[in-house]
Amino acid sequence: MEADIVVALHAKKSGAAALRFRRASRDGRLVVVLTGTDIYRDLPRSRIALRALEAADTIVALQPLALERLAPALQAKARSIVQSVALPADIPRVRGSSERCEIAVLGHLRNEKDPLRAAYAARALPRALRVRVTLAGGAIDARYLRRIADEVARNARFRYRGEIGARAALTCLARSDALVLSSRMEGGANVLGEAIALRVPVLASRIDGNIGLLGANYPGYYDVGSTASLRRLLQRFIEDRRFRRELRDDVARLAPLVRPARERRSWAHLLSELRASAPRSAFR
Fold first, then answer.
1. Is the backbone of residue 110 left (phi > 0), alpha (psi -120 to 50) or beta?
2. Neighbours of 63 (CB within 10 A)
């Protein structure tokens, strides 16, 4: 593999390629970008993921709390670079009707995303509350298709749109009153960045991947995997206009975090450091 700098996405899945590059090029520079499954599932038990991180010149995580999961020797060469979001100029920013609270859940259907938690929570809300949960995402785990069919049949507050394109997903999010980010495991969800860019309030599971971006003091967390905890948070969001404004204001203050110019500067600085640290013969 001939390259001056290789950026490997996912320490386990790209580990073999990263190690081949390191063996072939002692002077080239290797960057490994961590994901949620890397940090919170693979690293404790995947030898190839750990070897890839040991071989890397720099490790990049998508949110700062991920760095705390690394051994001190790895932390010394790691940094956080938050993924940015470039929004199309013509994405509509109209929220749902005042008569019904629109909740979006966007992501592939697999266990790590806990995709039906918002539907379960909405079903448990008092009958008087008007709310609809829209789930969109492809079925990575086919078992969820049956679960979704069952939920649609019994829950009038839930609809499933299937896999939709990136623009349709952004439009769905922009027209929603809130995003429920119900993941059990995240390295730094792209949809969270999109919600921040669109100033859409987020009701999020209390995990590092969400806390690392929204902040420890963000008031919109619920206990991961708990329908009762999310139901209470949803009910408060629907009934308490002041709480809605608080979440919206908190998310809006984070907007600079996901601006493309910020991410470009961070990567440009990193690449400049790598070039400066390499032998002159490494870059042709």
1. beta
2. 26
What domains does the chain contain, in order, with CATH numbers?
Answer: 5-82+259-282 (no CATH), 101-258 (3.40.50.2000)
pLDDT in tens, 220-267: 999 999 999 999 999 999 999 999 999 999 999 999 999 999 999 999
CA dist 97 → 94, 101, 132, 177, 178 (Å): 9, 7, 11, 9, 13
Q: Is 0.85 topped by the overall pTM? A: yes
Nearest Cα to Cα of residue 232 among 158, 125, 114, 130:
125
Integer angstrom CA distances of residue 172 from 115, 185, 207, 282: 16, 23, 24, 47
Residue 92 CB partners (closer than 8 Å, separation 6+): 171, 174, 175
Structure-block tokens of residue 281: 């013969």
3-state secondary structure of 154: helix
Phi then psi for residue 175, to 5 deg, are -90, 5
- Please tell me the distance from the alpha carbon of residue 89 to that of residue 92, in angstroms, as a whole number: 9
Q: Which helix (H) or strand (E) holds 266?
A: helix 260-277
